[in-house]
């Protein structure tokens, strides 16, 4: 089962101008993943039920270097703010590799994420 992924074609993304992030090229590419949760009444409960397994998997990906960072999307920063999705930055050879990682995640198999988008990304060095 594949979750509905939104992967833009390379032609659809045209940068306004090219820029360099470092003197040397990165060994792997970087990708931002924006995942949105289901919105049914039980969605938050499903998220909370598999969250600990999801975080264990994320920690393993962090150790291997595949996951740079990740966190929850919130409705807002108030005390009553709810988790409604996730944002992650991955290091990988291809969008397909990232999609395969996402498809194995507890939030996919546990029906937490309804859809996700994978976007090419390049971290700037300052």
TrEMBL record:
The record's listing under InterPro entries reads:
Dimeric_a/b-barrel, Sec-metab_biosynth-assoc, YCII
Q: SUPFAM superfamilies, from UniProt?
A: Dimeric alpha+beta barrel
- Domain YCII-related: residue ranges: 37-122
Q: Name one Pfam family in it.
A: YCII
Q: What is this protein called?
A: YCII-related domain-containing protein
Question: What is the organism lineage in this UniProt record?
Answer: Eukaryota, Fungi, Fungi incertae sedis, Mucoromycota, Mortierellomycotina
């Amino acid at each position: 089962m594949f979750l509905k992924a939104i992967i833009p074609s390379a032609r659809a993304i045209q940068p306004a101008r090219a820029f360099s992030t470092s003197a040397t090229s990165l060994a792997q590419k970087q990708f931002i993943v924006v995942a949105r949760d289901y919105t049914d009444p039980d969605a938050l409960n499903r998220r909370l039920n598999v969250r600990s397994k999801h975080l264990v998997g994320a920690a393993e990906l962090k150790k291997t270097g595949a996951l740079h960072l990740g966190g929850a999307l919130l409705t807002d920063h108030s005390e009553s703010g709810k988790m409604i999705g996730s944002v992650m930055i991955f290091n990988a050879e291809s969008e397909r590799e990232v999609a395969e990682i996402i498809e194995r995640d507890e939030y996919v198999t546990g029906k937490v994420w309804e859809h996700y988008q994978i976007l090419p990304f390049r971290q700037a060095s300052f």
